[in-house]
Amino acid sequence: MSLPGKSAAPKPKARQPFYRDLSFQVLAGMALGVATGYFFPKFGINLQPVGDAFIRIIQMLIGPIIFCTVCSGIAGVNDFKKVGRVAIKALFYFEVVTSLALVLGLVVINLLKPGVGMNVDMHSVHSAAVDVYIAKAHHVVTTSEFLLNVIPHTAISAFAGGDVLQVLFFSVLFAFGLAAIGERAQPVLNLIDAMSGSLFWIIGLTMKIAPLAAFGAIAFTVSKFGFGTLISLGKLVLEFYLTCALFIMLILWPIAKVNGFSLLRLMRYIGAELLLVIGTSSSETVFPQLIDKLERLGCEKSVVGLVLPTAYTFNHDGTCLYFAAAAVFLAQATNTPMNWHDQLVLLAVLLLTSKGAAGVSGAAIAVLAATLAASNTIPVESIALILGIHKAMSSAFVFTNIVGNSVATIVVANWEKALDRVALRHELKTGFKPADPPPARLNQTSSGQASN
């Protein structure tokens, strides 16, 4: 019996069974996908649409979610100087960390030399498979084309094309416009908040099929490429996974430590998202969930709304590791001489072309082709050598991208003094717990009418 005047303490929630945890479900889906692809390859290769359908649903929502998040964050703050500070700090961070990633990638591939001794004769390489990627390379050849492509032809075309950078550009301008007109913008902001709520409801519903999507994507990959392809080029795969692990330990871990949070706990907190991107090899599939989780971790909404979409465009840590490793590996495999001067030129080219990946869907191979063409040393056709293992490597670099983008958002929020450290410590310590669904609006209305 509770004391008068004091409410009874709320009962602690029962611990959720492990089989209802999304991380476990995605991992189980991946394991089942591997078994299906290995033992039933004819069936597994028909499962590609399962993973693709999930990715398309998420891609359908990315543009509107960026728009709602950016507009709500910037217009709600109503401080143009703060937005400028956040953008400058974020871009500075992105450029420094991606440069470190490129340097680390070059150092490790030169030390381990997985391509040395392959002695590939380019006359025996069938390059027809890479023609489509070479054709895409013109999209990311010059810096001027890339900068001009930031501006969409129309506001609708930015959303229709799914170009994250164009959507971000329009959203920032629209948010500034809302902030400029003051109180008159409130009805629009209310509508945007309502839209955001409905979009995240769709995301919550879609995430229920994430384990099925991971199952389909992994089953297709194993059925199509098998384990033989991975074994034949296993040295490069192992070298690249080691490079990604070193990047996380030697660069991201100290950054997290200096900014006062545990990288391992952060990775556990976003564990479901990390497993999902391993299965789908697509960072877009977890963008909406990351927005929600980073806000729960205490990052101010305006900072998350500006930094995370920009990170998806400019902060490709894992992809930069991939570009450096793949380019030098192809030089080693084809006996193309590359001294340190040539590799520094390659690094400079990569600093530009890696940013161009934002405008091309699934652009890693296309951007690598553009880089090799621009450096004019490594045969572009040699990309055919790594097409079979690209999927295995993309899972690693997308995983690294997601960890890097999450760290970047928290770091910039900390620099901007827009980080609730109490919430950060509590969430990382207790782990992610899904929020309770809000009470039905119909019931609220009915009870209100009854009391009247």
TrEMBL record:
Keyword Transport appears in the UniProt entry: yes
UniProt keyword annotations, A-Z: Membrane, Symport, Transmembrane, Transmembrane helix, Transport
Residue intervals passing through the bilayer: 21-41, 53-78, 90-112, 155-178, 199-220, 240-258, 344-372, 392-415
Localization (cell): Membrane
Entry membrane topology: Multi-pass membrane protein
Lineage top rank: taxon: Bacteria
Region named Disordered: 430-452
InterPro entries membership: Na-dicarboxylate_symporter, Na-dicarboxylate_symporter_CS, Na:dicarbo_symporter_sf
Span of the signal peptide: none
Pfam families linked to this entry: SDF (PF00375)
Main location (coarse class): membrane
Biased composition (Polar residues): 442-452
Cited SUPFAM superfamilies: Proton glutamate symport protein (SSF118215)
Keyword Aminoacyl-tRNA synthetase: no
Name used for this protein in its record: C4-dicarboxylate transport protein 2
Organism of origin: Paraburkholderia aspalathi
Gene encoding the protein: dctA2_1
